[in-house]
Amino acid sequence: MMGDGVLRGHIRILITTLSLSIFVTAHAGNLPVSNVATSFSKSFDTTLQRKLASVLEQMGLSRAAINGKLAVALVDITNPDAPKVAAINGDEMMYAASLPKIAILYAAFVEINRGRLRLDKQTRESLTRMIRVSSNEDATLMLNRIGKQRVLEILQTGPFRFYDPATNGGLWVGKEYAKGTAYRRDPLHNISHGATVLQTARLYFLLESGRLLPPDLTAQMKEMLGHPAINHKFVKGLSKRPEAVVYRKSGTWRQWHADSALVEANGYKYVAVVLAEDPQGGQWLERLITPMHDLIVHPKYAAVTD
């Protein structure tokens, strides 16, 4: 077991590392920070980072992060022109189960915006089921309607590049959500359905700030992410915070657990993304989201966990 004094030392190293102008992954046993070389990384907030690391310490999850079994991002986007970013293992790509269905949703809206896909009643309902109830059938249907290679092209090109070797990967869909083998695993980590917490958080941030799509399509994509129908992980944890309005996509397969959400509450907005590899990962996410929420919405209570 890691002693409290040693862990506090590790967290001090983390904060010192974050004060550098270039963010690098630490290799001395301290909680690893992101080395994302994008404009998003310029918004790292040392105070929020310190508090996020403290939440993991208090919940006994620092060791999981150090061992690469837990990745967490928290982004305060209340002021979209000055987001505050905090992340642990921010660019650690992990298997993310159904969470990358949000990448299929994004690709669909890219094609809708370009006039290559009609947002008719059938398409709208299929996309909504894919997100709200995590329908594998609809995810596979939409993946094939857009085109498997086209989805990967959208993720790897254009102005956003939600999968980029410079950020150690990101969102990736290389397999149907059905039985069978992967048609294309990601080239860096050999993952079929993957994500990093920072690339996922970027997608939510760009959507909410109006940079991702035209206003009408932004509203429709956000509506599909709303009204989540699966009451677990973030949604279950945030039931303790009734002021929270949640737009989310989660994922679960065996020991891999993922959740991602844009949350609005009392005039605040934030994005939270957590990836975990542990049989208890679902419970980790449920427990983590409440203090993460409080860091943004109830900062004076942020040191208290339920």
Would you write up a description of this structure?
The protein has helices spanning 4-18, 46-58, 62-66, 101-113, 121-132, 136-146, 148-156, 197-208, 215-225, 233-237, 281-297, and strands at 70-76, 84-88, 94-95, 163-164, 169-170, 172-173, 193-195, 245-253, 256-265, 268-277. By secondary structure, it is an alpha+beta fold. It has a single domain, classed as DD-peptidase/beta-lactamase superfamily (Beta-lactamase), CATH 3.40.710.10. It is built from 11 helices and 10 strands. The strands form 3 sheets. Strands 2-1-10-9-8 form a 5-stranded antiparallel beta sheet, sandwiched between helices. A 3-stranded antiparallel beta sheet has the order 3-7-6. Helix 2 crosses helix 11, helix 4 packs across helix 7 (148-156) and helix 5 (121-132) crosses helix 6. Residues 1-30, 32-38 and 301-306 have low confidence and may be disordered.
Shape: globular
Strand content: 15-25%
Number of helices: 11
Quote the average pLDDT.
88
**Tally of individual domains:** 1
Rg calculated over all Cα atoms: 18 Å
Count every beta strand, where a strand is a DSSP E run of 2 or more residues.
Answer: 10
Adjacency order of strands in the biggest sheet: 2-1-10-9-8
Q: Which sequence of SSEs, written as H and E, runs from N to C?
A: HHHEEEHHHHEEEEHHHEEEH
Question: What characterizes the major β-sheet?
Answer: 5 strands, antiparallel
State the CATH architecture: 3-Layer(aba) Sandwich
CATH topology: Beta-lactamase
Query: Low-confidence segments, ≥5 residues, pLDDT <50?
Result: 1-30, 32-38, 301-306
CATH domain class: Alpha Beta
Residues in helices, as a percent range: 40-55%
CATH homologous superfamily identity: DD-peptidase/beta-lactamase superfamily
Assembly state (oligomeric): single chain
The first-to-last residue Cα distance is 24 Å
